[in-house]
Design brief:
Length: 180
């Protein structure tokens, strides 16, 4: 195996490629761990961010959302496991190889759609979502935020357990649709 990539051979890359394939299968478990860690993220809301994520996913599921919609509802705030100011972009990039482009953009920009309900308190424009009215993903972002995300801050709501979403994550995130 090379120690300088400039000297790599086809045999080296066959070994590396096989190891990568095996590692790709760990993504669902990584996402589960990131979601679990959100239990430690309590940032002033009535519930912690795991409860919020589970409630968002549960609402999407009970609303008849597609598998992808349920997954992005559950995972829309997963970026908060890393940092909050950039969480939309982090989550969107984590999911990009596995979801549609519309889902990617809805996750990336969901905070501006949620801003309808709080940007005025932060001195920002609450109608930021209007900038995206002509985008193909606008309706998906509205549904994600207005039907599932915004109402999902109830600590008493009986959410579906995290484990109940694992088969869905195993299916959707088993293999990236593209790696290059
Ligand atoms: Fe959220």
């Amino acid at each position: 195996m090379f120690t300088n990539m400039q000297n790599g051979t086809a045999e080296d890359w066959a070994v590396i490629g096989a190891a990568h394939q095996e590692h790709f299968s760990k993504t669902p478990a990584h996402l589960m761990d990131m979601l679990r860690s959100l239990e430690q993220v309590s940032v002033g809301f009535a519930c912690d961010q795991l409860q919020h994520s589970l409630m968002t996913g549960t609402l999407a599921r009970r609303d008849g959302g597609s598998d992808e919609e349920v997954a992005i509802a559950l995972l829309h705030d997963v970026g908060k496991a890393v940092n909050i100011p950039n969480h939309g972009a982090i989550g969107a990039e984590l999911m990009r190889p596995y979801v549609s482009e519309d889902a990617y953009h809805a996750i990336y920009n969901h905070q501006h759609f949620q801003g309808k309900y709080y940007y005025e308190f932060a001195g920002a424009n609450p109608n930021m979502r209007d900038n995206y009215k002509d985008e193909t993903w606008y309706d998906l972002a509205v549904k994600l935020v207005d039907r599932w995300d915004a109402p999902a801050f109830d600590p008493e709501f009986e959410v579906d357990p995290l484990e109940s979403f694992e088969p869905l994550l195993q299916t959707l995130f088993a293999q990236p649709a593209r790696i290059l």
